[in-house]
Amino acid sequence: MNAPEKIVAEDALVVAGKPYRSRLLVGTGKYRDFDETRRAIEASGAEIVTVAIRRTNIGQNAGEPSLLEVLPPSRYTILPNTAGCYTAEDAVRTLRLARELLDGHALVKLEVLGDQQSLYPNMPETLAAAKTLVAEGFQVMAYCSDDPILARQLEDLGCVAVMPLASLIGSGMGILNPWNLQIIIDRLSVPVLVDAGIGTASDAAIAMELGCDGVLMNTAIAKARDPVRMGAAMKLAVEAGREAFLAGRMAKKPYEASASSPRSGLIAPAKAGEPKGA
After folding, report:
1. Are 31 and 60 in contact (CB under 8 A)?
2. Rounded CA gap, 176 and 32, in Å?
3. Catalytic site residue 276?
4. Which residues lie below 8 Å from residue 132, measured CB to CB, with a gap of 6+?
5. 77: β partners
6. How far apart are CA 15 and CA 216, in angstroms?
7. Predicted model pTM
8. What CA–CA distance (Å, rounded) separates 91 from 232?
9. 3-37 per-position pLDDT tens digit
10. Per the count of CB atoms within 10 A, which of 39, 151, 157, 248 is most buried?
11. DSSP β-ladder status, 107-110 and 139-144
């Protein structure tokens, strides 16, 4: 094993006790076809891929192409999610089905939406669903608002990760409230992953520079002009943002300039009336 691999291994993302080399998680919806899905996700380097059980076939529709044929569970951690659910009851039922389809798979992404226009999380229903799912042995990664108090409640319920939104799902608006995200990052002990709203590579890098443990995205890659190339760009952005966070940025000095070059050994300026070079 060479040195770069050792560094990655030591800085693994750990979710529910399992380490991952990549801190980029990606969705599988909105691509033109399964082939584009496969190529974009391969380029992203992601190891965890989310699957909307209500919209994607992973075996529940016999005779139809299955996503698992191009993204095999032997290579990827499949993260079933409850996209399209608006009540705790529907979300719990959906993830019970996913567990059956995936032979007892416990790691899931919970999202309970408030309305069809904003797709903003319904937090009372999310908390209710999380409580039920954790009690049933699920390892819950919960999509949530950027409210630090509610994020902490999800951790207290036993969620293995919390996933506050950067901005609305599919909006591409980037991180609109870095202050709340920073509070969540500072206060929680479980992984904090930004979910929803990422638009381009710089958004992902900013999330990682804040100290997020990872980033989940779908539309930013799937709806790019070149999804495969954007997948590769997001991989580099997440890695660069993480390295910058670990390195520790310089202190901001809005009212003080600081020369980059040393001040010693400078040529003294000529005195008045003295020829230059004397």
Report:
1. no
2. 29
3. no
4. 88, 92
5. 48
6. 13
7. 0.85
8. 32
9. 344 444 578 999 999 999 999 999 998 999 989 99
10. 151
11. parallel
